[in-house]
Amino acid sequence: MSGYLSRERKVAIEAVEQASKVCKLVFKQLVEGETLTKGDKSPVTFADFSAQAIVNSILEKHFPNDPIVGEEDSKDLQGESGEKLRSKVVELTNLVISPSLSEDQILKAIDRGQYEGGKSGRFWTLDPIDGTKGFLRGEQYAVCLALIEDGKVKLGVLGCPNLPHDINNEHNTGRGSIFVAVKGRGAFRRPLGGSDEDETPIKASSITDLTKTKFCESVESGHTSQSDSATIANKLGITLPPVRMDSQCKYGCIANGDADIYLRLRVSATYVEKIWDHAAGSILVAEAGGRVSDTNGDELDFSQGRRLEKNVGVVAANASIYDKVIEAVKAQVSS
Ligand SMILES: Nc1ncnc2c1ncn2[C@@H]1O[C@H](COP(=O)(O)O)[C@@H](OP(=O)(O)O)[C@H]1O
Ligand SMILES: [Mg+2]
Ligand SMILES: [Mg+2]
Ligand SMILES: [Mg+2]
């Protein structure tokens, strides 16, 4: 494929593919060792750090001048206290990446993610595992990578290793998708491990009857106000129960037409959303013909640094119902 951001698109897909591999490997070890329910959080930390090391070193190889706003840093891997974690991260990273990287190269790759972001120039933003809690539960998580230029998202790639190909028939279907969107070029889905020929265009739903819409939200009641969303759903006449799902897979479902509304309603007055939690997902929904804003109806502003300082919460919906949804959301959050 040639054209606008075609190299970036290809490299980003490759990076997300490789990072998804490490996540699946770690999860397999978790299950096989039966440490999933009794384990502390360290196994997921291996996956987070390794995935960030992999994506950042692939980006560095192809785009050495591009800075990266990544969720993780190497602090916990440093010194004597970080020794165990560090050696595990080095081992895992080198299972996926070749030629092998030294310990020092891996730590440096992770710390390429410390960029502050901002208004001008171009940078990447990475969430190596979005939905850590979902990952630990064996449910949904996503490897999320986006390219931002002068404060606007231009490319987004979401790797969703556990997402059923058909969410309405999840026990009889394959799992694992990559969602891709480039500004002005539409949104696509391909199977994880697939090729460009396997890509198909996706569209948000066009449903207008609110009583038949499906809304989704976080599994975690600490990340979104599930009581406010219930009130809003009720006011809108939505009858179906919420689809609760971790991570930016929710944006994938909206972009794909599998769900119609995504509500993320602030629970804590002090929490500010991070750019890596929304960059890839929001361009995906926009390019699939859906709409995304914060709960005041304002555009998500990715030019404010590492966090969405100007925004509160998130609302995504298909374009035909968005106006009604945002009206109900505004009324609820201002009451
Ligand atoms: N109080 C809070 N309100 C909203 N989001 C929060 C939050 N605390 C953590 N999060 C974010 O919620 C993300 C997961 O999204 P979801 O709840 O939709 O699954 C987390 O990403 P990580 O898992 O990458 O840390 C984290 O950044
Ligand atoms: Mg996240
Ligand atoms: Mg994360
Ligand atoms: Mg995290």
Automatic annotation (TrEMBL):
Keyword presence, Nucleus: no
Source organism: Mycoemilia scoparia
Protein name: 3'(2'),5'-bisphosphate nucleotidase
Family annotation (InterPro entries): DPNP, Inositol_monoP_metal-BS, Inositol_monoP_superfamily, Inositol_monophosphatase-like, Inositol_monophosphatase_CS
UniProt catalytic activity: 3'-phosphoadenylyl sulfate + H2O = adenosine 5'-phosphosulfate + phosphate; adenosine 2',5'-bisphosphate + H2O = AMP + phosphate; adenosine 3',5'-bisphosphate + H2O = AMP + phosphate
GO BP term, example: phosphatidylinositol phosphate biosynthetic process
CC cofactor: Mg(2+)
Gene: MET22
GO molecular function annotation: 3'(2'),5'-bisphosphate nucleotidase activity; metal ion binding
Stated family: Belongs to the inositol monophosphatase superfamily.
EC number from the UniProt entry: 3.1.3.7
Matches recorded under NCBIfam families: bisphos_HAL2
Lineage: Eukaryota, Fungi, Fungi incertae sedis, Zoopagomycota, Kickxellomycotina
Binding site for Mg(2+): E71, D127, I129, D130, D277
Entry keyword set: Hydrolase, Magnesium, Metal-binding
Keyword Metal-binding appears in the UniProt entry: yes
Top-rank lineage group of the source organism: Eukaryota
